[in-house]
Amino acid sequence: MSVHTKSLKNNLILKIVNIFNDNNDKLILHERSHEVLKKLSVVDFVYEIIESNLLDKNFLKREWSIFDIPSLKIFENEKFDLKYNIFLPNKCHSTNNAGYMIHSHLSSVLSSYVFYGHGYHSIIFDRDVKYFNDNYAQLKIKRDFFHSKGDINIIDSYEPHLVFNVSEPTYTLVLWSDDKEDPNVSKSFFDKLINKKSSNTKTKLLRNFYVNENRIKSITDNDFMLFMNKVHNNSLIKNNYHVHAICYFIQSIGYTNFSFLEKICSDSNTPLIWKKWLDKLINKKSINYPVFKNESNFLNGSFTYDDIISIC
Fold this sequence. Notes:
Layout: H1 3-20, H2 26-39, H3 43-54, H4 57-60, E1 71-76, E2 80-87, E3 102-103, E4 108-116, E5 119-125, E6 130-131, E7 136-138, E8 141-148, E9 152-155, E10 161-163, E11 170-178, H5 189-195, H6 202-205, E12 208-212, E13 215-219, H7 221-231, H8 239-252, H9 258-266, H10 272-282, H11 305-311
Antiparallel strand pairs: 1-2, 2-11, 3-12, 4-9, 4-11, 5-8, 5-10, 6-7, 7-13, 12-13
Helix pairs in contact: 1-2, 8-10, 9-10
């Protein structure tokens, strides 16, 4: 990697660090970061991020669950987190079907920039959700739009949103930040996002929503995990799918530093699943994207755009 590219990475990341050092409203900080975000998708920068992840032993040994979106880490500190997300078509191949359950990211604010692929249809709901008996809920649509290549979209804290199935592989650059500091959670921002516990009302924990008997029903992370563990016989780890997806990303983005990949493959500490897929890259074998089964992230199966419009 050239000195120029390393300097580019350091300079761009530093610009976002400086923006978030300002104690201002998180939405304003996100908006200030958007022009810099677009520069994080240039090819040389993406190549450096690919290599920095493959050099990270913890990344290579990570266990990916069916709930994880395949991704590459760009940068994280206490105030924000940057990464590339990889969205791939699910089993039904219909863009009318939801790709994931409706969900909010609690107190986290998210900026998403589509830099590869067609994009995806999305709905953002009002953050003021009405809850009823038996965890049924009423959602009000705030925005119904197509998140296209070149667009940046902000999802505010506690705003439920829905991503529909993509028609083709789509890559986004995402910027996360927390809307409020919580001193009672673990050190890194990413850990805060995963391990966050709300000290507010129970409704704040009901951040996942699905269609049940032509109504919207909510469920906590814990109850959803218990249900999915039972459905999948306590086998929620799907490393092959995610490693396959990331190696598809590497090939599709045009990365060809095969000597670097050979170095990673020759390391005895590199997991076999990574050697399997990196070897395909080294030998220039065409990798097709893995097809995800949409039912893995749903209760009562996937639902459609028409379902949501008829209810909300």
